[in-house]
Amino acid sequence: MSRPQEPHRPLFHFGNPFRMISPKSSQLSPRLQAQLNAFEETLGDRLRKLIPQDKNEILSLTWMKSAMESLCESHTDIKTLITNLELPVTDWDEKWIDVYLDISVKLLDICIAFSSEITRLNQGHLLIQCVLHNLESDPSKKFVRARATLDSWRQHIGSKNPRLHNCGSILNSLVESLDLPKVKNSAKGKVLMRAMYGVKVQTVFICSVFAAAFSGSSKNLLHLHISDAMLWAQAYSDLQTCINGEIKDLFLHGNFTVLKELEAVDLIAKKLFPMVEDGLEANEVEAFQNSLTDLGKQAGKFSHGLDVLAKEVDVFFKIVLTGRDALLGNLRMSDTMTDPVLGINVEQQQVVR
């Protein structure tokens, strides 16, 4: 077969994946059941760790970094599970491969959109640095320049990133992909499909939260109903209720952003703007200096949080990309091994290349 050149097939309509993964007649061996249980219990623990003890932690850049880190760990665990199952790609059903390739492309697109928004936010941080430089060096002579830069900050942060526009449609298609292909006569395949289902749910959820945070809209939030038969179902439900509920509440109260560090910087910038615009009164000098100090601290936290998050998004991008490349490489290798026309073995083919 020649998978890389074929167009992606349409994804399956959303249904009950658990029914297809574990039909009534299926029985897993104790070893396979233990592998599946271990995977799902680890996933459940991972989801529980993302439930903040304090709601003020929700959508801090620190929490977002932890969420992306958790996602990377789950995708790495899937690779490990495939190895432990000793399920070679030649045994994969073509439908599994189609779904995997389609999902991987969409996840790469989402990563690119997220990275673009992080870069845009970092550009906003540079504007704050310009404000601080002007006001800390000689504020009396540079108020006009600082005022213009603060105004540019407000416009920049309030603008929308066009790269985020497609996130909603991508997320909806990923929800459709939760409906898994039927697994026939393969106990290992059933284990893999159920494990992949869990990771895809985690992926869709975290990506939807990021999309909502970056776009400034709760429309990108998704609410998924998970079968209680999944060992991680309760942990997921608790996490989803906690995070989605708080984000919706923030937007209902008119917050222009739900990113905690960005909100902290913006609040100080709003406090500074009238001082810079109208000039300082004698009784405002101390408050002005305190605001500058606070702005420097909060801007530093904001910049550091963005840098750390950008690295985690990049790690996830590379995990998805290398997994996709490995699958395509294995498919090409299987073509080589089974093509009777070539008449050479794998080692000879590698030498030729």
TrEMBL record:
It is found in: Membrane. PANTHER family: BPS1-LIKE PROTEIN. Belongs to the ROH1 family. This is Uncharacterized protein. One of its GO terms (cellular component) is membrane. Keywords: Membrane, Transmembrane, Transmembrane helix. InterPro entries: ROH1-like. It is a single-pass membrane protein. Pfam families: ROH1-like.
